[in-house]
Structures are given as structure tokens and as C-alpha cells.
Amino acid sequence: MGATVRRFLAGAGLDPAACRLVPLSGGITNRNYRVDCGERSSVLRVGGARVGLLGIDRAREAACARTAARLGLAPAVEASAPRDRLLLTRFVKGSMLTPRRAGRPAALRRIASALRRVHELPRFPGRFSAFDTVRRYDRLARLRGVRIPLGGKRALSLMRRIEAAAAP
């Protein structure tokens, strides 16, 4: 555990010397850990160093996570340090939602209810466009010489049609 993480945990009211970090699987741009400190368990998300290339705004992400938590849609945010790319949330025991389980009627009702609640939320800070994100990633990939998969141009063309059809 590095000094920045130790300071962050201490600032969140935890004793870093008494905490055990257990790596969690998953995460594309992050490393995730369950932090066990006595009876308290949290999740520490350590953001990747170069996520700025992807346009990820960690301060906005923390604000959105706090709003979602207040409305019961996400775990409580215990601490955040956007500059250090750190986020600490309450650990919620559960299991992964598989496609098979998600297709069950009870699960579909819960998913639909959660989505309805998300769409009823007040506006989150900032703006997000999946279409702009895909265009930005495409430009970045091309600038860095990434080979675009077969069908990439067709997918972007289809995306433009979807975006036009979805425009207000």
C-alpha cells in the first residue's frame, strides 16, 4: 500500500495499518480492492494513471456517485480524492448479475425499476454523450496507430444514423 493510499484511508477515518486490501476482479481502467478494517468493509477504486486520455472526469464521477447513493441506486461514497484518482465506497455483498439471471422476470422488474429511477434523477453535473465518446476513442486510436477492426467504418456510420434518429 503506497503512501498516497495510506493518507487517503487515514483521511477517511480508517487506520491503514489495520486494513487489509484484497484485490477484486474486473475494472478496465482501474484497480479495485476490498478494504477490510475491523468490522468495516469498503471498496477502494484506484484509477489508472492515463485515464485522462479517455476523458474520464473523476471529480464528476464522484459527484454522480454521491447523487446515486443518496437515491439508493449505488453504494455510499465514503471518501474521494479525484486528483489522486481514488474513490472509497461502502462494500455491498452480493453476486454478479449474469445474463441468465438478468433475464428472469423478477430481475427484469428490478432492473427496469432502477433504470426508471435513474431517468427520473435530477441532471448530473456535466454532460456525457456515448456518441462523442466513441468518436473521441476512434480519433485517439487512429492517432496512436491502432488497427481498426474489420467493420469499424460501418459501425461508425451506423452510429451516426442512430444518433440522428435519437436526436430531439
Provide the fold topology.
Blueprint: H1 3-11, E1 19-24, E2 30-37, E3 40-47, H2 58-70, E4 77-81, E5 86-90, H3 99-102, H4 105-119, H5 130-143, H6 152-166
Task: Describe the protein in words.
By secondary structure, this protein is α+β, with helices and mostly antiparallel strands. 42% of the residues lie in helices and 19% in strands. It has six helices and five strands, in the order H-E-E-E-H-E-E-H-H-H-H. Strands 1-2-3-5-4 form a five-stranded antiparallel sheet, with helices on both faces. Strand 4 (77-81) and strand 5 form a beta hairpin. It is globular. The chain starts with a helix and ends with a helix.
Keywords:
alpha+beta, 168 residues, 6 helices, 42% helix
The proportion of strand residues reads 15-25%
Total number of β-strand segments? 5
- Multimeric organization: single chain
Average residue-wise pLDDT = 89
Task: Give the strand order of the largest sheet, numbering strands 1, 2, ... along the chain.
Answer: 1-2-3-5-4
- Summed up, the helix count is 6
| Sheet having the most strands | 5 strands, antiparallel
List the uncertain runs. Answer: none
Counting helices, strands and paired strands, the structural category is alpha+beta
Q: Give the overall form.
A: globular
Level of helix content? 40-55%
Q: Separation of termini? A: 48 Å
* H/E element order: HEEEHEEHHHH
Query: What integer value in Å does the Rg equal?
Result: 19 Å
